[in-house]
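Troubleshooting entry. Yesterday's outputs looked truncated, so today I'm pasting the complete records for two proteins to confirm everything comes through intact. If either block looks cut off, that's the bug. Protein one:
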Amino acid sequence: MEESESPVAPPKTMLDELMEKLTASPLPLKVAELAKGFKRPKKVSIPDFLQDIEKQLEEALADGRAFKQPSGPKALTRYWTRDEKHAIREAALKLAASPIAITALGKACAKESKADLEFCE
């Protein structure tokens, strides 16, 4: 009888780890937040390293595994595995279950999602 070998999982790629972070996060993340925990290669500047991470995320964006929105402060791009616009709509509907002024609703959604107020409006 042959001994069956258990399959060896391939090593995790940077994109795999980025996707795990995005999936585990309760809110969208900026590239700088995603970069935390990764060792930057020697002789690679911080801006170049952050750009490399964005290039990694392009694959996930292209196949619909990730979303990006200019939702952070000053329209800073944030990434997530959920469509942030949909998540904000869900939060707005939940908050609007009881009477609330439209301006207060926008502020409450922005506070809950930690998104830019203009993006939420």
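Protein two, checking that the full record survives here as well:
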Amino acid sequence: MKNKLNYLLGLFLLGMLTFSCTKDERAAPQGTRFNAQPFGLGAKWVYSVETFTDTSEAIVEIIGDTVLGGKPFKVAEQKLNGSSTLGFFYVDPVSGDITQRSYNSQFQNGFIESVAKLGTVSVGKAWSETYQLNLGAGIIASSKNDFLIDFVGLTKTVAGNNYSNVLQLTIRASAMVPGSTVWTPNGRVVNFYSNNVGTILTETYNQVGTLVSNRRLKSYTP
């Protein structure tokens, strides 16, 4: 069961790269507004996705509007290897924080909803979110993501494109199997966001620190 839990959580992380990075720049002052995810209708991001076994292309596009829980969400479609999934995003008009909802039958409530507290840049800002994972046969386990803003104001080159005012966010995943009271580390995801562009680079590592997936932004159309 533990192996199944780790596998499912790994898939969740993967659902969330040749580059250079300068980590000592602070171009974005602490506490300033940061637009980590533009949501213009028709906005489109094209990514190169590399794993141990293959290289593919992922396309994310904002295709419409909807209302969930009384809030106006943008609908994003992602296409990878011929398949298509939908995600839903809400940007808080006051804080600028992003609520993301995606559907996964393995989760008890049928969807994952997380809040990226990136509306204002602040190195060291940290928060956590816990989810209930349905393993079937009435077995419910728990997963947790710990978020930390590592750096702001970075300069970075991804897929030959230069970006400034980049924010680095690390997400550390852990799991708790039924009957346990201990969180077990289950890998981490490092995301890089460019102000007014969105995610430019995602690196996914397993629980022993091995890089298992790279996702590089090749082009962005506002």
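Both blocks look complete. Sanity check on protein two: DSSP finds one helix and 13 strands in the chain.
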